[in-house]
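Hi there,

I know you've been waiting on this one. I reran it after we fixed the sequence typo, so this is the corrected version. Both the input and the resulting structure follow.
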Amino acid sequence: MPAEILPTAEGDLGRTPFAHLLVYVLDKQLTGALFLREASGVEHAIRLEAGAPVKVRPGDGHAMLGEMLVEAGAIDEATLRGALSMHGLLGDALLLAGCVEREVLESTAAHQFLTRMTRLFSLGADTTYSYFDGRTDLVDDAAPASTMHPLAVLWAGVRAHAAASSMMAATIERLRDVTIRIHSAAAIERFAMAAEEREILDRIRENPLSLAQLLAAGFAPEETLAWMVYALVITRSLDLGLDTTPLCAESTPAPQPAATRPVTLARIRLRAASHRMGAAAPDLAGDGERTRVQPRPRKRGRPSAFTLAARRIETPPPREAVTEPPPSAVVEIDPSPPNVPKPAATEPQANDVPSSESDKAPSVPMPPEGQPDAARPAHALYCLATSRIAERDLAGALAACQLAREVDPTQPDYAALAVWIRSLLGGADLRARVAELDALLEARDDHAQALFYRGYLRRRIGDEPGAVQDLRRVLDLDPGHQDAARELQRIALGKPAKRPSGLYRS
């Protein structure tokens, strides 16, 4: 927890159990950082966006990704050791080296995220919390954010550790003589219930009884029924005659049979992008943290499969020389085929047809000025990142760009592109990305591409004067920067900021 920053709110889990904290931040759709400090001094951190936990950083290295992949049989110990000798995120290294399938990595990382979040529900009543509103930078890393619905996290946490809540027993006791009715607008599908839990819920819906009657009728074991009712109460998913709206419900439709009930949409804007890392915070040093990891001693002999794959990444085949500057790439996930770019305006326009210029293939960036040949692996990874951008593979582009930064952290080109890619992953916090570009430009105020990225993002967050200032500065530095000129023209014509799809083109 940053000592120099005053928290917005503080308390302890004895008075406000962790499940109730998550309900509150989800109800208020808060964005910021939540820190939990155990009595032993161990501190855990959670990043929240629009009320949803999207990243978690355990203070004790609980549920390490590498160990989970080995336990699942996805990789072996030798491959893990080879990956740990690389700099950067463990998942990125394994994925780029071809040592693990993307689907396996995503599912394992999602399981890691849920495992780490669920464990926080077990923390003792003497655990204190501090919340910092708007400070997403306090829990920030290169891993994409989780797409797991917060109600699914709540349900899993209460299922595993309801007894740890200081309010569980009192809540259940007050409900013993109250008729248990499922609210017609409850977002039941978002809880990701197990089949047997859904069966219990359907029986409750068909037979509204008091909790005492449900227990006497043997609908379910008392412990199971108690935690389920507790979870439904705190998320306002029960109709207790108090005229309340269930958490994450958009409307209150007329009751329907369970078999035909539609899926309730959530208020939270969840990320629609496919993420490779499931948003779990990177493991600590020794398992993928973004710090320099000392490789373990290895016996000389035949290179491992990981080493051979990594060499193929770091030493790409020769490419023909080009003289064009790095492309001004502004990307976002696009369902269109890669070979048919379709820029999408805020409102679709019938005459919005790509020009012949916008159909050109992206140019390959040249090495940063003064970069020696020995450092070309970083530039090769930068080139790979731009290629992945052209292919609409933002996850792969970010992985390659972050590895380029690890190999050569002195180049602002790599940092600017990494920030930009992260800004275009679904549901990104654009204000936080602008702040990162602010920091980059404090050191390099003449970096035209970072200025273009910031100008574009400023317009997206409503800061049009700042956008104009940045875009004009880009043209002062680089009069031939077509993207900046086109975006200024759109501003002058009163056209809305375009939602990028593929490479940014007007």
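Quick highlight: Residues 252-300, 308-367, 371-375, 499-506 have pLDDT under 50 and may be disordered.

Best,
R. S.
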